[in-house]
Amino acid sequence: MSSDANTLLIVEDSFVQAKIIRKQFEVLTPFTIITASSLAETDEAFAASAESIFAAVVDLNLPDAPHGEVVDLCRKYNKPSVVLTASFNEDLRRQFLEKRVADYFLKGSIDEMDPLITSIERLHANSKVKALVVDDSATQRAVVRRMLEVQCIRSCDAPDGLAALDILANDPEIQLVITDFQMPRMDGIELVREIRAKHKVNRMAVIGLSSSGSGPLTAQFLKYGANDFLTKPFEAEEFYWRVNQTLNILDVMEELRDCRKLTAGR
C-alpha cells in the first residue's frame, strides 16, 4: 500500500447503513470515501482506483457474494479489509484469520463506530511504519513479517542481535523492533539494552518475544527498555492489538514533543 493512498472503500449493500458509515468517516477523518454495494461494484472500484485505495470496510454478506467472497477480492488487489458482520462465531473468526483480515466488527449503531474508525486510522498510519523482526528462525521471522503485512506495516529482518544493530545503524526509517530472546551472538535482552543506549523509548519501540515466557524473563525485557512482551505461541489478534497499541503510544509521544516545541517557540 502506498503511504500516499488516502481513499477508503466502503462495501455495504444496505443504502442506509452505507450512508451512516460514510458520513461518520467523512466527519471524523480526512479520508476520501467511495462506496460499493456488490462484489461487481467492488471489483470496478478497485480496477478504477486501486492506487488511491488504502483499505476497505466490507460487509461480509453481499447479494452476489453471500459467503465473504469480497474479502478474497480485497486480497486479490492486495488491500487490507476490515469486516462488518451481523453475527459472529468461532468458525467465522478462524476464517477471518485464514483470509488475513486486518480487523472485524459486529454491525451496530452509529454510537458503536468509534472502534471501527480507530482501526482504520491505525491501518492508514501503519503504511508509514517500518519494523525490524529479529529471530534466529527464518520460519518465525517470515510468520511475524506476514502478520505485520496484514496490518500494513513494512518490515525487514535479521537473524540475531548483532545483525539487527547493523541494520538499525543504516536504516533510520525503522520505528519498531520485534525481537526473540534466544539467539546466537546476541540475545534479545542484550539487543534491547544496546537499542536503548542509542534510541529512547519514546522514539523507537521494542516488543520482546520468547517461548519460555517466564515471569523473570518478561521483567528483564521490560526493565531494560522493551515496550511490551509476548509469549510464543500467541494469537494473531493479540499480536495485532499489542503492535498497534505500542504504535499508538509512539504517536502520542510524538504529538507531545510537537506540542512542547510549539510552546517553547512562543
Q: Can you characterise this structure?
A:
By secondary structure, this protein is of the alpha/beta class. It folds into two domains: 7-125, Response regulator (Rossmann fold), CATH 3.40.50.2300; 129-260, 3-Layer(aba) Sandwich (Rossmann fold), CATH 3.40.50. The chain is 48% helix and 20% strand. The chain has helices at residues 15-28, 39-49, 69-76, 90-98, 114-126, 138-150, 161-170, 188-198, 215-223, 236-264; strands at 7-11, 32-36, 53-59, 81-85, 103-106, 130-134, 154-158, 174-180, 205-210, 228-231. The strands form two sheets. A five-stranded parallel beta sheet has the order 2-1-3-4-5, sandwiched between helices. It has a five-stranded parallel beta sheet with strand order 7-6-8-9-10, with helices on both faces. Strand 8 (174-180), helix 8 (188-198) and strand 9 (205-210) form a beta-alpha-beta unit. 35% of the residues are buried. The model has no long low-confidence stretch (mean pLDDT 92).
Descriptive key words:
alpha/beta, Rossmann fold, 2 domains, 266 residues, 10 strands, 10 helices, five-stranded parallel sheet
Brief description of this entry?
With 266 residues, this protein is an alpha/beta fold.
β-sheet strand percentage? 15-25%
DSSP strand count:
10
Judged by helices, strands and strand pairing, the structural class is alpha/beta
Top-tier CATH class of the largest domain? Alpha Beta
Helical segment tally?
A: 10
Radius of gyration: 20 Å
Query: How would you spell out the order of helices and strands?
Result: EHEHEHEHEHEHEHEHEHEH
Q: Supply the CATH architecture of the largest domain.
A: 3-Layer(aba) Sandwich
Query: In the residues, how many domains can be counted?
Result: 2
What does the main sheet amount to? 5 strands, parallel
Q: Quote the distance from N terminus to C terminus.
A: 38 Å
CATH overall fold name of the largest domain: Rossmann fold
Average pLDDT, rounded to a whole number, is 92
